[in-house]
Amino acid sequence: MRLLEHKILGIDPGTNVLGYGILNTEDKQLKIEVMGVLQLQKHPDHVTKLKEIFLQLQEIIETYLPATLAIEAPFFGKNVQSMLKLGRAQGVAMAAGMTMGLDIFDYSPKSIKKSVTGNGNASKEQVAAMLGHILGVKFVDEYLDATDALAAAMTHYNAHNSFSFAKGTISKKTKKTTGKKYSGWDAFVKENQGRVK
To answer: For residue 11, what are the domain limits?
Structure first.
């Protein structure tokens, strides 16, 4: 099995709904290879859900051959039980990737939102809207867990490719940014308040 360096698997972990998406970055022409959600509510117990996460992610990896897994890192919340369950889902997803030979990277929720929108407190809808703009597609609301997964993949791409936003449109032929270049996020946000509310 030959993993493909230009494919990044993004994961938004969860034990009821897990989002996934693969970003194909070949020749820096960004496109979505696949995206979707694993619906896990139907499974009767937590252990079965974790098993399904492991098996289904391995199947996705075998099918699309990404070389890298980018996952949203644990966050701290008030509900300890929810945190534990989420942490287990993250761990199982990472184990599935490691077992298949992927390089694993994790990013905090705030850093993912900031990487994609310029705003670390952006909503899921704002993340999806900016991803749609960058990738030249329109997402529907029921796939917000999948767009969060793609955002993790995009964050990894941005972190390793000195990606810079541009004012104006994205060429749908090349998916490359065109127009004004910005020196950093502060400059981008200052001049694009309507895009990063």
So the answer is: 4-163
Which residues lie below 8 Å from residue 86, measured CB to CB, with a gap of 6+? 13, 14, 15, 74
- Which of 33, 52, 72, 148 is catalytic? The answer is 72
Is 27 catalytic? The answer is no
For the chain, the residue count is 197
Check 12, 33, 52, 148 and give the catalytic one: 12
Number of domains within the chain: 1
Residue 7 or 27, more confident: 7
Q: Is 72 annotated as catalytic?
A: yes
Give the model confidence (pLDDT) of 165-174 as tens digits. Answer: 433 333 333 3
Query: Out of 5, 145, 148, 191, which one is annotated catalytic?
Result: 145
Q: What is the C-alpha separation between 113 and 130, in angstroms, rounded?
A: 10
